[in-house]
């Protein structure tokens, strides 16, 4: 899995990164709360291991900001503070689990995997969709094109996800209406065409090529 380790103790962070890497994880380290927020916006992670006591912005504040911004990313809070009220504060801030240092990497690995399973995500990044230069994380409701985050509305995200799941194949309007909107009938308005137009604008905002192919009378396809 892709993990973000937020830890200001450089020696401890290096040790834990090495141990988690040996357990087949990719680990990015952020030394402060603000640095963690930046990493989460520009990269894709399956989960976060977050120190409770951090400079500039503590772990509880980091989690609150993530939740306020709509991020559902699993967060395991790791701290030397082990009293009951401290654990409660960490969990009430939005963390999914709370463990006290030092905790063996193997236990952290098991806890992270449990959190990911509980969210309905698939281990080892299998739930990440890629089609050409487009990457989608359905669990995080986030998407990128050539590494650039895409600011998509809910229907735009659902449409792009469905096209990516079947990249290289055409999906008819009827298929998209059923899978994206959940209708078992075709509405009178051209809702699919209108949504595709809005999605195209965002995918090509930086002058990139249009990755959506239209086949008249058939439907739409996302290029592989």
TrEMBL record:
GO molecular function: phosphorelay response regulator activity; transcription cis-regulatory region binding
One Gene Ontology term from the biological process aspect of the record: regulation of DNA-templated transcription
SUPFAM superfamilies to which the protein is assigned, alphabetical: C-terminal effector domain of the bipartite response regulators, CheY-like
Domain (Response regulatory): residue spans on this chain: 2-116
Highest taxon in the source lineage: Bacteria
Keyword annotations from UniProtKB, A to Z: DNA-binding, Phosphoprotein, Transcription, Transcription regulation, Two-component regulatory system
Protein's recorded name: DNA-binding response regulator
Organism: Sphingomonas adhaesiva
């Amino acid at each position: 899995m892709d993990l973000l380790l937020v830890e200001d103790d450089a020696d401890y962070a290096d040790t834990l990164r090495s141990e988690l890497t040996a357990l087949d994880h990719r680990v990015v380290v952020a030394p402060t709360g603000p640095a963690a927020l930046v990493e989460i916006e520009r990269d894709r992670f399956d989960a976060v291991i977050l120190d409770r006591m951090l400079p500039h912005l503590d772990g509880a504040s980091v989690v609150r900001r993530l939740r306020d911004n709509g991020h559902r990313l699993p967060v395991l809070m790791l701290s030397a503070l082990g009293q009951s009220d401290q654990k409660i504060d960490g969990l009430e801030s939005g963390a999914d689990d709370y463990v006290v240092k030092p905790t063996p990497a193997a236990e952290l690995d098991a806890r992270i995997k449990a959190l990911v399973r509980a969210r309905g995500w698939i281990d080892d990044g299998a739930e990440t969709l890629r089609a050409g230069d487009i990457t989608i994380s359905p669990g995080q409701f986030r998407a990128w094109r050539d590494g650039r985050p895409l600011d998509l509305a809910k229907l735009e995200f659902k449409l792009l996800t469905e096209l990516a799941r079947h990249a290289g194949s055409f999906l008819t309007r009827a298929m998209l209406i059923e899978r994206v909107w959940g209708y078992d009938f075709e509405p009178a308005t051209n809702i699919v065409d209108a949504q595709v137009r809005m999605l195209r604008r965002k995918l090509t905002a930086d002058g990139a090529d249009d990755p959506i192919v239209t086949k008249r009378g058939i439907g739409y396809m996302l290029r592989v």
